[in-house]
């Protein structure tokens, strides 16, 4: 993911993130608050410089396609983050990350002969 320098898994539900946006480095911890394998994962920050919550949902469309939906709420408190939001940098990064994720899953599916969650290549509505 663009702007992510490091993610350290603290335990089964918590991670520590180090990111960089518009030259500003930020650290924060997240915890998984809801997870249903092959359907959704939701998280929120618990400490650090960033306040956010989000969820990724996976919806099988048919035997060969899956819709991936990302919903995030972010409080941009720092000047660098506010500038990145106003100029569209954050939206472009997220769209780029979603496209790279799509490519990764489809490539992995082709190599294994299976799609995401064993259902076929993944597509997104970006």
Automatic annotation (TrEMBL):
Residues 1-100 form the Coenzyme Q-binding protein COQ10 START domain. InterPro entries: COQ10_START, ORF3, START-like_dom_sf. Residues 107-126 are annotated as: Disordered. Signal peptide: none annotated. This is Cyclase.
């Amino acid at each position: 993911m663009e702007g992510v320098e490091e993610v350290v898994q603290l335990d089964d539900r918590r991670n520590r993130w180090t990111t960089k946006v518009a030259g500003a480095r930020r650290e924060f911890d997240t915890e998984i608050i809801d997870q249903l394998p092959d359907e959704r994962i939701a998280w929120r920050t618990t400490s650090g410089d960033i306040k956010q919550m989000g969820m990724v949902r996976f919806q099988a469309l048919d035997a060969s396609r899956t819709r991936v939906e990302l919903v995030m709420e972010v409080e941009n408190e720092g000047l660098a983050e506010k500038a990145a939001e106003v100029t569209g940098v954050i939206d472009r990064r997220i769209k780029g990350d979603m496209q790279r994720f799509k490519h990764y899953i489809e490539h992995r599916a082709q190599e294994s002969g299976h799609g995401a969650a064993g259902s076929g290549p993944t597509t997104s509505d970006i």
